[in-house]
Design goal:
CATH class of the largest domain: Mainly Beta
CATH topology of the largest domain: Neuraminidase
Order of helices and strands: HEEEEEEEEEEEEEEEEHEEEHH
Shape: globular
Strand content: 35-45%
Mean pLDDT: 91
Number of strands: 19
CATH superfamily of the largest domain: TolB, C-terminal domain
Strand order of the largest sheet: 1-2-3-4
Helix content: 10-25%
Largest sheet: 4 strands, antiparallel
Low-confidence stretches: 1-25
Structural class: mainly beta
Number of helices: 4
Length: about 300
């Protein structure tokens, strides 16, 4: 298919998107209290992409913290790994996979991955560890990140996929923890020895204070990274702002990938347009789903067209 034909097809689809947007009636707002599992307390830590599923921890009638999954007004106790307590911290984009930490029969905490089909799965530990906990999961539920610790409470960040828990290493000091992961599971963020890190298979664990030193004023530093946007471009966390002499939250725009850059090569071009077209009408929560709404459609084509030739 020639480039001109692609543009004509995409222009027609984009016009339809703009028409739909122009006829929208506005935003709806609501606040829902989730309740508890019979006790006096609950906290929500994660939510699915469409807001229909919420996960967290709540006290049951015995006053024990238990991981929950809330949907359609019903809060379900996810159980444990044979012990007493559990907590859920993350959920996949479609709400089907929940991750967190739960006690086993020996009273040790283990990172878990829960699904309706398989129940609560023990993800294990790193060599030499006595405990582990999961904090985040990729959009499709395949990749889980968190921390494992040894008897001396030294913590190591991990990335789990297909039954294998991998040690992500450290930043030259003692300890690291992984708190967030991109939608495709390729980029992990967290804290290592008092410094925010980003970790990829290609680049390993990098200190964000070094990579983005040009953005920091003298005396300022990024202490930890807690979450990352689905496309891996934006990172948020906690650090010290020397200009205000305060500890503050931060938003880091890494500049990559560019909006519309499906193949992550730094250029929004025909290849990105074709990638969206070939995946059109498919289920989202992958790189072709550029607005991360769960379906690859006209809106994603519009993102590519709006940014066409950026970075090229």
């Amino acid at each position: 298919m020639k480039r001109e034909a692609l543009f004509r097809m995409s222009a027609l689809l984009s016009a339809l998107v703009m028409l739909l947007v122009s006829t929208a009636t506005g935003w709806s707002q609501s606040l829902t209290w989730l309740g508890t599992l019979g006790g006096s307390h609950s906290s929500a830590y994660g939510v699915s992409a469409d807001g229909s599923v919420v996960v967290g921890e709540a006290l049951n009638t015995a006053g024990v913290r238990r991981a929950f999954r809330w949907e359609s007004g019903v809060m379900a106790d996810l159980g444990t790994l044979g012990g007493v307590g559990s907590e859920a911290y993350g959920v996949s984009a479609d709400g089907r996979v929940v991750v967190g930490g739960a006690q086993n029969a020996a009273g040790r905490e283990r990172a878990f991955r829960w699904t309706a089909e398989g129940g609560m799965e023990d993800l294990g530990m790193l060599p030499g560890s006595i405990g582990s906990r999961a904090y985040s999961v990729s959009s499709d539920g395949r990749v889980v990140v968190g921390e494992a610790w040894n008897a001396a409470e030294v913590r190591r960040a991990f990335r789990w996929e297909s039954g294998v828990m991998a040690d992500l290493g450290m930043l030259g000091g003692v300890g690291s923890e992984a708190y967030g992961v991109s939608a495709d599971g390729r980029v992990v963020v967290g804290r290592g020895f008092g410094r925010a890190f980003r970790c990829t298979a290609a680049g390993g664990m990098e200190d964000l204070n070094i990579t983005y030193a040009n953005l920091l004023t003298p005396g300022s530093y990024l202490w930890s990274a807690y979450a990352i946007s689905p496309d891996g471009r934006y990172i948020v966390g906690y650090g010290y702002n020397a200009a205000t002499r305060r500890w503050e939250g931060y938003l880091l725009d890494t500049g990559f990938p560019l909006r519309g850059d499906v193949d992550r090569n730094g250029c929004v071009d025909d290849a990105d347009l074709l990638a969206v077209l070939f995946a059109f009408s498919g289920q989202g929560y992958r790189n072709e789903d550029l607005n991360w709404d769960g379906v690859i459609d006209d809106a994603d084509l519009l993102v590519v067209l709006s940014n066409f030739e950026s970075g090229c």
